[in-house]
Design a protein that fits this description.
The complex is a heterodimer of chains A (105) and B (143).
Chain A (H helix, E strand, L loop, with lengths): L9 E3 L4 H9 L6 E5 L16 E6 L2 H10 L8 E5 L12 E7 L3
Parallel strand pairs in A: 2-3, 2-5, 3-4
Chain B lengths: L1 H10 E22 L4 E6 L1 E2 L1 H19 L3 E15 L2 H11 L4 E2 L2 H13 L5 E15 L5
Antiparallel strand pairs in B: 1-2, 1-6, 3-5, 4-6
Classes of the chains: A alpha/beta (105), B alpha+beta (143).
Chain lengths: 105, 143
Amino acid sequence: MRKAIYSMTIQKDIEGNEKKYLHEFADFSHKRVVEIGCGEGRLTWQYAHASSLTIGLDSDHGALRVASIDAPHDRKHKIHFVHSEAEHLPFSKETFDIAILAWSL
Amino acid sequence: MVHALSEIRRVLIPNGILIDLRPLLSRWEVEVASARETRITGKVNDFEVGIADDTAANRSMAEAESNGWFIREREEFFSYVYSWDTPHDMEEWIDDEWNDFIELDEATQRSTRSAWALSDGDARAQLRIKMLIGRWRRVKTRD
């Protein structure tokens, strides 16, 4: 899809349901998490603080650049962003406790 | 999609969790909402290609389950609301970002603009998206 620059104010998930359900469905405490389709990290920031390691994957270089810039400074040691396709995950087997398909299947 | 699920299975520990989180096309409702009230002004039209994507994703998960890779533990639907300052902003966003799979017809555009113009000063245009969240457990067997 074409990326555009918007002057409008858009608000997402104004009822906070996504974060609520995400934490109902998984306990991220001290877990190693891979998020496939992380984009600019909007969802990543909803859980990564609790994890021991979070890897965000996306095939969009621009989105990953934004995610890296937006990463909270005090968490940069445990949040990493990687350019990759979901069909070829650059990790050893049995590396993660939780995988998230984020708006990407 | 199935190959991606195979890769996810490979990198997850035995008994690891896969969260499948995604929107589902279902003629999402358009709303005008203020602090005082929320009014439904119409629904978007879904394109076949988007519906086909949802079907393909569901089929991939079913195939992963039948292959014995994952077991479905829980599934729910919830609303995810996008909100814009004005109906025009919403129309522009849909046209730029989502024109591959949904459209706003003229009647819905008119009713949304009209409702927004007659609403309180804090009124916003909203789109209520149907979301699926599923939790799948990687089957314990080792490769």
